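Model the whole thing, not chain by chain.
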Amino acid sequence: MVQYIVQRAIQAILVVAVISALVFVGVYAVGNPIDVLISPDATQQMREQTIANYGLDQPLYIQYLVFVRNMLGGNLGRSLVFGVPVLPLILSRLPATLELTLAAMLIATVVGVPLGIYAGTRPNALGSRVIMAISVLGFSVPTFWIGIILILTFAVNLGWLPAGGRGETVSVFGVQWSFLTIDGLKHLFLPTLNLAFFKLALMIRLARAGTRETMLTDVIKFARAAGLTEQTILRRHVLKLISVPIVTVFGLEFGSTLAYAIVTETIFSWPGVGKLILDSITSLDRPVMVAYLILIAILFIAINFSVDIIYLFLDPRLRRRGIS
Amino acid sequence: MRAAAISDFWSDFHENYVAVVAAIVVVVIILAACFAPWITPQNPYDIANLNLADARQPPGFVGSQGYVHILGTDSQGRDLYSAILFGLRISLEMGVISGAVALAIGTTLGIVAAYVGGRLENVIMRAIDLQLSFPAILLALILAAILGPGKTQLIVALVAAQYAYYARTAFGTAAVERQKEYIEAAAATPLSAGRIVLRHLLPNSMPPLIVVATVQIAAAISLEATLSFLGVGLPVTQPSLGSLIANGFEYMLSGRTWMAIYPGIALIILITAINLVGDQLRDQLNPRLRR
């Protein structure tokens, strides 16, 4: 088992190295950041000085090696627009995004899995049909559109909730959180709902498909024969058996939820990493783009890695194979 | 034989009237988009037709050119109904072209990987899996941003975001088909590898790809709308549905809701209808679900 984990860890590090090179070349090969940095009426001398300051006169591979050396030292460069180091900039925006993403994933799972199990046990009931119709909508309707409808309904027409911003925050260990104040929760509610909707559809479908297959297996037949109530069977057996794909998806979708947070944060003016990256894309702030992409890639690989490890614990068959 | 298969397919399709209605909606939208210049009062891309005095007027407003703007006008003074039909045209165009290119590239990669196997398979599928673990929207966003605005650039971004799904699907089915005896039998005859792949492996791997293609075209249209909404899609002179919604969104908080709502409804109807047809196709082509 240890050997398996070490092997996977080495693979993960290799993948990070490859991705960092790809991202660097991809982002740096296209577009010219000098246009962003220097005003058109700057003198030739100022131009050259700025170019040299940012190391943009060096060949690409030298720039990459410098970048890798700095990255290993925890320095991902300076933002061309804000003029501050990139890593602290991204980290300062991270709590807002994490708060939003985690809340959305949690809602999607806590609401979606029970609905899916219900739809799976009674596939022909009216309630199940309604649930499945909602899930089709969740897949079809783009995130930004749901956000617009939510703002229109709850902020513009009803005036119950704010349309944007983070609201009042509380500082815990120097990090600002919205979910600890009433005002913050009010601001958090609509963006969370928006981001959760798409994942909700996915969770419903997964839980429904898993339940439908599990209900046909002998395990359930024997549990029924043993006189267990349907409630107990669902809670103790079905939920456990469908948990493996759900944990996988929870992990894998966490990354894509972070990506979709770009859309939600833009609509609700939520000051997170997503809004930062979109602003840096439109202003061609390459150090921020590169740093964000590499951090996301590392996150993805870390998630994939931990999902594999969690599998070892959820599925005894894999554990045995891993040991031998 | 072929004709019988098609009529069987139709009679199955008929049973699900939701899918039939969805298919009719898709056809109507495609026709409306194709014939947009003939069934709209205005060419929204011709600046000479636009009058700023007509801008931001509610549905039912009679503009300076004497006809009724049945869905109102947008912030540039475009007739919203015309802009929506022309926008549908662009959305469909982007979805179908990028879908077709991604289908071609992805299928080629997947089937070659499955047929050749060995090292090549490892390299191709590893790369595909790596890309699939990365969210498509992020990839498309970054590519669209660094390539700049324009139809071709947007198509490149959409293809890059999609081809891996086709490759995975093509590889999955082709790898199963590859093991079957008819491929083995074909390999024992003097047929060339290219012919076996094109005439035997490819046609038998098609059904799942058709399903993925329908769902992916809907996804591509949605992705294009999202990119345009975020301002990294098409140039503002050729608004797709996404850019129309983005323009309208700016005026929504001041109560002029029609500018965002109507293009949005058109987008949702299109995507939902395509997805419903795709769902039905999947159920029909999946032998496990047939009883």
